[in-house]
């Protein structure tokens, strides 16, 4: 039995809620006492005017798994938020540097430059000092979201709202099925990937790296079993992506080694209608860039055809020497699994919990295309050792394999068409280098938050002064 | 667009003309020294740029120059130097590579360059008074250097004032102000400053920048000593070439994601991948009449190498043409193009 | 016509070479400006960069003052390295991102100089995970080091400590110093005008705040390649 008390953890860390809608409220603490009172009630099961913070598992275990509450409510605090609530300076100093500096200050490391630079971020992210809390409401109806929203709005100054929703079949706007592979913790049964220790997401627990412990901010009640979240608003440039697939497919169609990319007699459909060779090559490019076919099937398991996802295990695979899944694909960059990497000691050490919902379309004057994208949460016990480490060395730069060093993630990396490249793998072990694709995902905003445990929220509510 | 560039170019050439200059000569880089030689590409060059001169040895004409537009030759004064190289390709075609000892340009586009040319126009300069110098020393600021003997006007004060207000001009103005004088035209490094798009043998395009590195090394004169000779660089080069060719390595930096491909005021840091593209052998002096008639143009390119969108590079195309026409040089390669 | 230099000009021009004036500058003028215009200490190590070639072959110049700078203390520090050779090679071979690392005893300091690929904190963290014991042995000899032993349990503090002791790397483009100083004060680079003539003073004052610095980011004959890329090209495996 695990010694983790699940009734004392916020519910959005170890598992996803699988509601259809989300609303993230970006809040400023303008009246400390009101907020403390609000948090006190919220962390004790809520009240008439205050929503309850959803926990991982209620103490009396009265939630049957199939009877979800009408909505779930969780909070994360920025460093400015902890300060605004009156955490003592000596304790504030025990939080890790990257969190204290905040996401905007770490922009270069995260590849947020040019149109993704913090100075170009949309409101309220261009005023990060005003964002103290991110409150996330999950529900299946807007009415439920609004109900909680109204309650929250009474205690805080609302600086922004971001509404997201789940696309059908867990899709994202690029057409991929998402959220298939997540870290598996001791309480979840797993297939081939090793179990992730709780220290991956909970401060104070042992991590994947032998003997290595992330610092727990003080006091113990505040830091213990808390975790960190990189909340990001990521715009997806769908038209540019689809246009690029057209161009790349044409290039591969006319390439002398075309048959080595995909057998000339290959036949598959997109799930609805059969595809011509150009259409199939588009899907191959999309699949190699991601590491999965757009229907979710791991590309390495079936490189010559896009099979029915029900027929293939979606998470049971590894990246051996002969894998057709490109080393530079998005999946292999973010989680190389047991595959060979330069930093041999780092396999499985930079795992993250990802929770994302789509947003948009937002129509902005002067913008040729309505904005769509992803509201992403990237959760882990150390922003520096997990989120940032993946972003700056693996997702961009590609340090983990000399064959991709110097190239960024083709799908979400910080690319420019003058310099980008990606190697498509061939059936004979060779590659064809694709070039000239633009950045398909740009950053519109984001904050680093601390997701406190329930005792920590009660501690914050009790602070004086 | 073309006409707009030409209008701006006309204004630029006029603004650059110094009042102590000679209208029959170039408005800047007035004094030059010509030489001929040939360029031998390195074995890897064609892989990165498929242009003819990177595939096979090519005859070349070179004009070294002093940056100043004054009508009096002052080799020993601190000044930016130029090295314009014409590669003579087959079928009477040619391509130019124009470098200077400054690694960056002063401004990011033509309009701002016109503004700079006007604001940094040479003004009367005087020795700072002892009190000004003493005050500077107390401010921990090096005093303004005394003018050279015979120097009555200088662009420095205007350029520094311009850089004070425009951060993009800082690097160029700072380096220009402290650049010194080379011991020899063959002992300076020259940078082509703009980005170009090089197409490799396999069709790959790269955004690149070129620099000439002197094989004999970079050597400037001692700034502590008074420059005694006004005209030594030409004779030095002639002497040097009598003993054998002067060699330059052509190095090509490859731009990376996040680099500014269209802004010549920003140098790329020295850690970019550098490709050894070949060696230039400067062999024989040319007579002054031939040299001064030459009309180079940074836009005279060839298949395998294309201009970036750098607006300064584009306005230079017209500026060189206007200048060539005004001094009645050999017609600019783009003369009459509309 | 230019003004001729008189005796006063010559006197003033000669001042910087006069002993009494140098004394005055050092003990009065410089301290005055340090008081008037103090510079924040600029952070150590290479700056984050989106360019791949800036993110490989980066330099660490770590200067750590010894608790006991006597020959006895320095010998202890020397032993801390020489008794851990297996540990060090196991680290080098498995972290995979280090081109070279050197240790020096320099006056009362032990210095660790290395060239590595990628993000600084990942490099340090991976190293601690593999050879934390070597870092512990070294840290025990270093002033203020005890608080961070064992390093495996003080990862974030240790990374911050190393950052603070790694030398500031002066910009490769001299005029970029203005922007770095502005950034350290939270001012957006390029938003303030700066008089180029004040750059020498800015440097003097900065060298007061950062007495030891690395002059530029280093000069490389084959820039832009990671250790693993070099090993792969030579066919010796990575």
Your description of this structure?
The complex is a heterotrimer of chains A (465), B (338) and C (238). Chain A is of the alpha+beta class and 465 residues long. Chain A folds into 2 domains: 6-235 and 446-462, no CATH class; 237-350 and 377-435, no CATH class. Chain A contains 13 helices and 10 strands. Chain A has helices at 32-42, 79-84, 89-92, 97-101, 107-110, 142-155, 220-223, 238-253, 258-261, 277-290, 330-334, 383-395, 454-462; strands at 21-28, 71-77, 133-139, 157-165, 227-236, 353-362, 371-380, 421-425, 431-435, 441-451. The longest helix of chain A is centred in the middle third of the chain and has 16 residues, at 238-253. Chain B is an alpha+beta fold and 338 residues long. In chain B, strands 1, 2, 3, 4, 7, 8, 9, 10, 11 and 12 form a 10-stranded antiparallel β-sheet that branches. In chain B, a hairpin with a 5-residue loop joins strand 3 and strand 4. Chain B is globular. Chain B starts with a helix and ends in a 12-residue tail after the last helix. With 238 residues, chain C is of the alpha+beta class. Chain C has a domain at 52-167: Alpha-Beta Plaits (2-Layer Sandwich). Chain C has 10 helices and 5 strands. Chain C has a 3-stranded antiparallel β-sheet. In chain C, a hairpin with a 2-residue loop joins strand 2 (98-106) and strand 3. The radius of gyration of chain C is 22 Å and the shape is globular. Chain C starts with 6 loop residues before the first helix and ends in a 5-residue tail after the last helix. The chains are: A alpha+beta (465), B alpha+beta (338), C alpha+beta (238). At the B-C interface, helix 4, helix 5 and helix 6 of B face helix 1, helix 2, helix 3, helix 8 and helix 9 of C.
């Amino acid at each position: 039995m695990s010694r983790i008390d699940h009734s004392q953890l916020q519910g959005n860390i170890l598992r996803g809620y699988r509601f259809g809608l989300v609303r993230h409220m970006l809040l400023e603490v303008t009246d400390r006492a009101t907020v403390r009172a609000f948090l006190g009630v919220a962390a004790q099961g809520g009240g008439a005017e205050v929503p309850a913070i959803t926990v991982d598992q209620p103490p009396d275990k009265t939630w049957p798994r199939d009877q979800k509450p009408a909505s779930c409510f969780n909070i994360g605090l920025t460093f400015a938020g902890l300060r605004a609530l009156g955490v003592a300076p000596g304790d504030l100093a025990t939080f890790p540097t990257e969190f204290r500096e905040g996401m905007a200050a770490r922009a270069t490391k995260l590849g947020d430059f040019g149109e993704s630079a913090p100075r170009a971020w949309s409101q309220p992210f261009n005023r990060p000092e005003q964002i103290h809390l991110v409150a996330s409401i999950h529900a299946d109806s807007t009415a439920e979201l609004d109900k909680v929203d109204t309650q929250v709005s009474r205690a805080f100054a609302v600086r922004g709202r971001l509404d997201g929703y789940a696309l059908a079949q867990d899709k994202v706007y690029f057409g991929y099925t998402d959220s298939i592979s997540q870290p598996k913790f001791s309480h979840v049964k797993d297939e081939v990937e090793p179990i992730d220790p709780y220290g991956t997401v909970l401060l104070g627990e042992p991590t994947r790296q032998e003997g290595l412990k992330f610092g727990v901010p003080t006091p113990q009640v505040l830091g213990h079993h808390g975790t960190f979240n990189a909340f990001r608003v990521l715009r997806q440039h769908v038209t540019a992506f689809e246009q690029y697939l057209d161009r790349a497919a044409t290039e591969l169609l006319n390439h002398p080694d075309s048959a080595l990319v995909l057998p000339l007699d290959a036949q598959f459909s997109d799930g609805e209608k059969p595809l011509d060779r150009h259409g199939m090559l588009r899907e191959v490019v999309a699949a190699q860039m991601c590491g999965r076919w757009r229907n979710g099937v791991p590309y390495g398991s079936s490189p010559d055809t896009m099979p029915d996802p029900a027929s293939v295990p979606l998470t049971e695979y590894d990246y051996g020497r002969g894998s057709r899944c490109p080393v530079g694909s998005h999946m292999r960059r973010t989680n190389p699994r047991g595959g060979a990497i330069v930093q041999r000691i780092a396999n499985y050490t930079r795992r993250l919990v990802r929770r994302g919902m789509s947003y948009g379309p937002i129509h902005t004057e002067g913008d040729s295309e309505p904005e769509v994208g992803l509201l992403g949460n990237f959760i882990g016990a150390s922003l520096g050792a997990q989120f940032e480490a993946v972003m700056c060395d693996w997702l961009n730069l590609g340090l983990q394999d000399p064959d991709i060093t110097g190239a960024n993630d083709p799908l979400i990396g910080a690319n420019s068409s003058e310099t980008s490249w990606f190697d498509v793998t061939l059936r004979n072990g060779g590659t064809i280098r694709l070039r000239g694709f633009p950045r398909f995902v740009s950053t519109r905003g984001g904050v680093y938050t601390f997701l406190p445990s329930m005792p920590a929220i009660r501690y914050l509510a009790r602070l004086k002064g | 667009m073309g006409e707009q560039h030409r209008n701006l170019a006309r204004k630029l050439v006029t603004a650059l003309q110094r009042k102590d200059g000679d209208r029959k000569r170039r408005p800047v880089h007035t004094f030059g020294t010509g030489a001929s030689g040939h360029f031998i590409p390195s074995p890897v060059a064609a892989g990165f740029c498929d242009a003819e001169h990177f595939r096979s040895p090519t005859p070349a004409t070179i004009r070294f120059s002093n940056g100043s537009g004054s009508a009096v030759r002052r080799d020993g004064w601190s000044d930016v130097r130029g090295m314009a190289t014409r590669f003579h390709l087959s079928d009477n075609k040619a391509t130019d590579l124009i470098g200077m000892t400054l690694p960056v340009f002063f401004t990011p586009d033509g309009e701002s360059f016109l503004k700079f040319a006007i604001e940094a126009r040479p003004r009367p300069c005087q020795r700072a008074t002892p009190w000004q110098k003493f005050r500077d020393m107390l401010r921990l600021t090096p005093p303004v250097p005394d003018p050279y003997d015979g120097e009555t006007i200088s662009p420095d004060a205007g350029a520094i004032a311009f850089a004070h207000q425009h951060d993009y001009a800082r690097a160029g103005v700072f380096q220009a102000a402290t650049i010194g004088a080379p011991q020899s035209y063959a002992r300076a490094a020259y940078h082509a400053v703009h980005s170009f798009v090089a197409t490799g043998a396999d069709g790959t395009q790269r955004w690149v920048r070129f620099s000439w590195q002197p094989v004999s090394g970079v050597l400037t004169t001692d700034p502590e000593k008074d420059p005694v000779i006004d005209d030594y660089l030409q004779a030095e080069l002639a002497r040097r070439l009598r003993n054998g060719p002067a060699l330059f390595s052509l190095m090509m930096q490859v731009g990376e994601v996040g680099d500014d491909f269209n802004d010549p005021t920003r140098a790329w840091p020295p850690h970019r991948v550098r490709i050894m593209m070949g060696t230039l052998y400067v062999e024989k002096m040319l007579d002054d009449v031939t040299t001064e008639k030459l009309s180079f143009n940074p836009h005279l390119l060839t298949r395998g190498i294309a201009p970036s969108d750098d607006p300064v590079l584009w306005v230079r195309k017209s500026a060189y043409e206007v200048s060539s026409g005004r001094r009645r040089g050999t017609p600019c390669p783009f003369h009459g193009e509309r | 016509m230019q003004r001729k230099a008189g005796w006063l000009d010559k006197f003033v021009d000669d001042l910087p070479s006069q002993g009494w004036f140098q004394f005055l500058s050092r003990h009065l003028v410089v301290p005055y400006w340090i008081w008037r215009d103090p510079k924040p200490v600029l952070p150590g190590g290479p700056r984050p960069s989106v360019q791949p070639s800036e993110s490989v072959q980066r330099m660490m110049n770590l200067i750590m003052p010894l608790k006991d700078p006597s020959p006895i203390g320095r010998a202890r520090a020397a032993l801390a390295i020489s008794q851990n050779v297996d540990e060090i090679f196991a680290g080098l071979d498995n972290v995979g991102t280090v081109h070279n690392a050197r240790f020096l005893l320099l006056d009362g300091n032990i210095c660790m100089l290395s060239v590595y690929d990628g993000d600084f904190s990942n490099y340090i963290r991976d190293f601690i995970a593999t050879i934390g014991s070597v870092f512990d042995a070294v840290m025990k000899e270093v002033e203020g080091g005890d608080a961070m032993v064992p390093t495996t349990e003080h990862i974030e503090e240790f990374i911050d400590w190393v950052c603070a002791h790694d030398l500031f790397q002066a910009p490769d483009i001299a005029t970029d110093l203005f922007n770095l100083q502005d950034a350290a004060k939270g001012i957006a680079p390029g938003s303030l005008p700066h008089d180029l003539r004040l750059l020498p003073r800015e440097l003097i004052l900065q060298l007061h705040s950062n007495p030891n610095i690395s002059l530029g980011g280093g000069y490389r004959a084959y820039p832009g390649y990671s250790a693993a890329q070099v090993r792969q090209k030579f066919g010796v495996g990575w």
